[in-house]
Amino acid sequence: MVYAIVRAGGRQEKVSVGDTIVINRVTGEAGQSVDFTPVLLVDGDTVTSTKDDLAKVTVSAEKVEDLRGPKIRILKYKNKTGYKKRQGHRQELTRLKITGIA
Predict the structure, then answer these.
(1) What's an example Gene Ontology biological process for this entry (predicted)?
(2) For 24, phi and psi rounded to 5 degrees?
(3) d(CA 38, CA 56)
(4) Which residue among 49, 87, 89, 94 is buried most deeply as judged by most CB within 10 Å?
């Protein structure tokens, strides 16, 4: 089984061909191709981690859709002062389908 560890959206994701991942928003239209350079590549028993060998490998993915994450509610409160502040946030995300590791 071939899989790679890629840095995407501020995190590292373990991917193999056919996987679907959700990362921070990537610009572009649905159906466009996105390429990543892997941090680590595992091909059966062979583990590739040197920078020179990884420069030759690319992980390609196809953008499926843009979406938004769950709502996170932030509440700030200070006792005895009457200070309350409520805020919400929804992270903008992109769903990708891994199409190839070459």
Answers:
(1) translation
(2) -60, 155
(3) 10
(4) 94
Q: Convert the pLDDT of each residue in 12-34 to its tens digit.
A: 999 999 999 999 999 999 999 99
The whole-model pTM stands at 0.85
Tokens of 40: 């680590």
Q: State the Cα–Cα distance between residues 18 and 3, nearest whole angstrom.
A: 11
Query: What are the pLDDT digits (tens) for 38-85?
Result: 999 999 899 999 999 999 999 999 999 999 999 999 999 999 999 999
